[in-house]
Amino acid sequence: MGMLAFTLALLYPLLGLCAPVGRWQWDGSIPGSTASAVSVSLTLTGVALLLDVIVGTPVAWYLARATGRDKIAWEAAVLVSVLMPPLALGILLSLAFGPTMKPGAWLLRMGLPTANSPLAFIATQFYVSVGYYIVAARAALAAVPVDLERTAALLGLRPYEVFRRVTFPLARLGFAAAVSLAWVRALGEFGAVVVTAYYPSGMPVQIWINLQDAGMPAVMPLLVVFLLTALPLPWAIHLLAQRRYADANA
Q: What whole-number distance in Å separates Cα of residue 139 and Cα of residue 134?
């Protein structure tokens, strides 16, 4: 009975979708804004997530297998990005890559604006999500027995073949959880993105704009789309993990 009461209280905010806020407006005060925000969020978040996997996987593997004292320093550096308050991260990114700093000035000369651009959007989402991906992927890789990898190497497999044929199959569910965690973190980011990339507006920023300009009726349709794109992936991964765990212990 206690668990039921807790679950009902936990899920109660979802009833806000049924609240009488007036007739829903699909585009707020700007025609096409809902479709544009969905397209921006899904496309650019997908790019950021791809960068998370490409850059974060080797880092996670190193942290899972390293034994030296320097490992503590590298892990602490990764945790900084995880623990950084989003608004502070957004302000720091806008300053560090602003026109007064060499990297920002160089990118501007190359025709790559570091504020209110797709590049700024992707870079911000990468910074806010890669730490989460690395922490989760590192845990998945650390659970793979090192002896199996060594045995595969002794049998003649090259390092990338060991990863592809031994390490990844054993850690794939953990990788899926890492991807889903990074996806939700990047897709839902508001505090940092609103500073660095107000335009092009993704779903969180567009929801804020609609709330300011047109009120709740313009927020609700985009809010539903936001929930439908953010929740299913991690939810399905969690259920799959629970099922695998139950099968393994049956």
A: 8
